[in-house]
Amino acid sequence: MKKNALLFKLINILACIGLFGLLPIALPSTAYAHRGATNEVDACNILVGHERVHFTAYTPTFNNIEYCQSIPHLGSTNLVFDYGGKTLRNLTVEFEVTKEPEGIRVFYLEPTKIKSGTVNSTVDFSKFGAGNYLVHVAIVYKDKSIDNHIPLSIGLESEPSDNLPIKALFILALIAAAFYLMKHAAGKDTRSSDA
């Protein structure tokens, strides 16, 4: 009887360890986020001088996910530039996207004041092909400019898949197996105590 009780406890412990050990697998592995806490590094930000411009790209024909440095889809892409503050609204700013290493211009907005603080445009990257690009933002004053850029890859990486239904089924099967083993061990325990 003590041997069966010990086996029952061991199965319970192993089931709990297995369940909690597999929890990270069951949780979504991809996070699409931006504009976090003040001290959080945001890869979608372009710092131009002391001013911040937030860059986001969308591929509405494929999904509604926000991208900024790696877009898995090659096609029509909405480019959005949002000013991080009000200062840039009074300055002349230039926007450009180039295919690298050739430096071919695929998008250009000449130096202008954007009072709304947001620039929206669409580029069909299928015309230029998969590859590496640079997103440039420059503050222009007379014949001088302060600029910066962030890298952008188009069509080089596949969309991360989130197999949550498969993971959930796996976890449910594990739980069912653990309960079956516990019930089976408990059944043996009661039969041996009756003897």
Break the fold down into its secondary structure elements and pairings.
Elements: H1 2-26, E1 45-48, E2 51-58, E3 66-67, E4 70-71, E5 76-83, E6 92-100, E7 104-113, E8 118-124, E9 131-141, E10 144-154, H2 164-194
Parallel strand pairs: 4-10
Antiparallel strand pairs: 1-2, 2-3, 2-5, 5-8, 6-7, 6-9, 9-10
Write up what this structure looks like.
The protein is an alpha+beta fold. Helix content is 29%, strand content 37%. The radius of gyration is 27 Å and the shape is elongated. The termini are close together.
Descriptive labels:
195 residues; alpha+beta; five-stranded mixed beta sheet; 10 strands; 29% helix
Q: How many strands, what sense, and barrel or not for the largest sheet?
A: 5 strands, antiparallel
CATH architecture grouping of the largest domain: Sandwich
CATH topology of the largest domain: Immunoglobulin-like
Q: What best-fitting shape do the alpha-carbon axes yield?
A: elongated
CATH superfamily of the largest domain: Macroglobulin (MG2) domain
Q: How far do the termini sit from each other? A: 10 Å
* Integer count of domains: 2
Average pLDDT number: 78
Number of strands: 10
| Global Rg | 27 Å
Strand/helix succession: HEEEEEEEEEEH
SSE-based structural type? alpha+beta
